[in-house]
Amino acid sequence: MTSSLFACFTAVSENLISAVPGHSGDSFLGAAAGRWLWRGDEERAVEKAGDLLAGFGLTGQANDYVGTLERINSVGMAVAIVDMIPDDATDLKNKARIDLIKQILTMSKAVHHEL
Asked: Domain for residue 109, yes or no?
């Protein structure tokens, strides 16, 4: 598998490799020693996770999952920014909320259109 394909699997593969038995970074000493000690274990686990996803035909679903996480993160950041508007700026805050809702609805329609 190519490294560009691994980028699509980041969130999914992290879930797959989180419980790999015998990982050298799982112990306190292994974690304290640093990435140089467990980098090889992690690279092999990520490669195996990618192979498993491809083997089960889940490559497309992994890409969809990562895209969904990115959209959720974007919405969360936008909501946090709107919440930073002072409460005494009621008109501005309400307008920002309305604009955000419009953008979310537009994004939702585009996602459903892709499906």
From this structure: no
Q: Is the pTM of this model over 0.85?
A: no
| pLDDT tens for each residue of 17-64 | 666 677 677 777 777 777 777 778 878 877 877 787 788 887 777 767
Determine, yes or no, domain membership for 110: no
> In angstroms, what CA-CA distances link 98 with 8, 17, 103?
33, 41, 9
Any domain includes 17:
yes
What gap in Å lies between CA 53 and CA 99, rounded to an integer? Answer: 38
